[in-house]
Structure to design on (266 residues):
């Protein structure tokens, strides 16, 4: 019996209970937890544009390893994107086990959820729907970023968002990822009993409030950042400067030179 079938049936060839479903569940939690936390970092990085173009430029160069290599190496970002892509695919593949496999099963689950009127069961439907949407939306973004890591920056990103029509995709992806990520983290806390304490019911209520606050926070931050990229992209289109690379202002260059020379003397 293949591992996959064993994972589905929960039984080995000899008819004994298999540990595989538990292992796969753990893997799904682990990859999901990693991706959700990665997205917090990612959204903070993307929102650097709200502070200034120079700040977003500096952060971009940091991820390209500018503290080691003089001009930064975009290949580092491609490698990180590739690793995230692999984890994303593994997580999606494991998540597929939980989707209903035909319409009849879907109807039964829907009726069951309706009759129970249980909030967490309803969350499951949001998870399944946003997860399915991300299969496509997330893959497009990750592939483009992986293959165009040298075109990330205040102007380059803004042109991709506006002139290369990524903004409609980002609106949908942002909604899907923020709901999916925070519901996922909430489910992890409940499933593995983190923060259960004396009164798990009260904890669940608090966790739900935290979950909602995080969703709203990251959605507001995400949409504000998207608007900033769209604005810069529109300005570039109006000025006929689409495709130009961002040149940092004197203060960033000066800071770099000063730090390098101090490092050299030391
Ligand atoms: C290493 C992997 C990743 C890198 C380097 C990366 C990089 C970026 C960059 C530079 C932007 C700004 C727009 C642009 O340049 O096109 C962006 C936007 C965005 N990314 Fe990623 N990304 C990664 C992974 C992901 C993943 C896994 C997701 C979710 C499945 C995601 C969701 C988004 C969303 C929703 C936006 C738009 C956010 C907004 O504008 O507020 N990214 N990403």
């Amino acid at each position: 019996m293949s591992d996959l079938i064993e994972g589905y049936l929960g039984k080995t060839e000899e008819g004994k209970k298999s540990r595989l479903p538990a292992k796969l569940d753990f893997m799904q939690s682990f990859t999901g937890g990693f991706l959700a936390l990665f997205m917090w970092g990612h959204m903070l990085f993307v929102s650097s544009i709200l502070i200034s173009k120079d700040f977003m430029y500096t952060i971009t160069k940091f991820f390209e390893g500018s503290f080691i290599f003089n001009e930064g190496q975009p290949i580092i970002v491609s490698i990180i994107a590739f690793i995230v892509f692999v984890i994303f695919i593994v997580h999606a593949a494991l998540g597929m086990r939980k989707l209903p496999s035909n319409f009849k099963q879907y109807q039964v689950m829907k009726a069951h959820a309706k009759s129970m009127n249980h909030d967490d069961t309803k969350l499951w439907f949001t998870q399944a729907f946003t997860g399915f949407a991300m299969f496509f939306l997330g893959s497009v973004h990750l592939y483009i970023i992986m293959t165009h890591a040298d075109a990330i920056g205040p102007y380059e990103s803004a042109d991709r968002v506006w002139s290369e029509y990524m903004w409609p995709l980002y609106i949908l992806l942002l909604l899907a990822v923020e709901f999916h990520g925070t519901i996922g983290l909430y489910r992890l806390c409940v499933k593995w009993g983190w923060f259960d304490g004396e009164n798990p019911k009260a904890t669940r209520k608090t966790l739900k409030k935290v979950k909602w606050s995080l969703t709203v926070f990251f959605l507001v931050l995400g949409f504000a950042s998207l608007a900033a990229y769209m604005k810069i992209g529109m300005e570039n289109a109006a000025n006929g400067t689409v495709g130009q690379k961002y040149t940092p202002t004197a203060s960033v260059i000066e800071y770099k030179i000063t730090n390098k020379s101090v490092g050299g003397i030391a």
